[in-house]
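Supplementary Methods S3. Input chains for the assembly prediction are listed below.
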Amino acid sequence: DQQVKQNSPSLSVQEGRISILNCDYTNSMFDYFLWYKKYPAEGPTFLISISSIKDKNEDGRFTVFLNKSAKHLSLHIVPSQPGDSAVYFCAASANFGNEKLTFGTGTRLTIIP
Amino acid sequence: AAGVIQSPRHLIKEKRETATLKCYPIPRHDTVYWYQQGPGQDPQFLISFYEKMQSDKGSIPDRFSAQQFSDYHSELNMSSLELGDSALYFCASSGRIAGENNEQFFGPGTRLTVL
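Predicted structure tokens for the full assembly:
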């Protein structure tokens, strides 16, 4: 029962363009959502998060959008840089993030120079 | 800034042996989470501790146990190891503040290989 889904296993984007990564969830108890970037054999690195009381959060080149009614969130990276190439995991939690994370299956982003 | 420390980084064990993984959270973080990531899979929650008490339990085998000590570091003990236990084990920590969102910060992981 995959409660958090990332339907695109991979995505290739030209350097300088916008990268859009998508995530869907099914559990209505989730109220806090995070994006992590991961390189092979390393731990996930926290990128950006959003609470269910907001619909947008921005941090530099990264913006996360939340559509609660559709149970959908997306991560926008603009402009995309070669160093952004990695696997991106969407994760969700309940209780303002004070509970375990449920991860999506990840999207491998490749930035083409 | 100090990060989550995990040791060892790599561990090779034989079937039926035991293993102990250690996690040192970010200073002043009082909550520790353990996750297991198999090859090609997403991280799966195992167990968590808040203020040295178990706070939640996921799909952790009975052969595994864990605890959080007075200095907030945590250890995951794995016994009767099986081939299927080969995975990356991540520890994450957070500082639980009531009414605020708290991100989990991950350590570099321990790669366990069971032969």
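The mean pLDDT of chain A is 95. Chain A touches chain B through 23 residues (CB under 8 Å).
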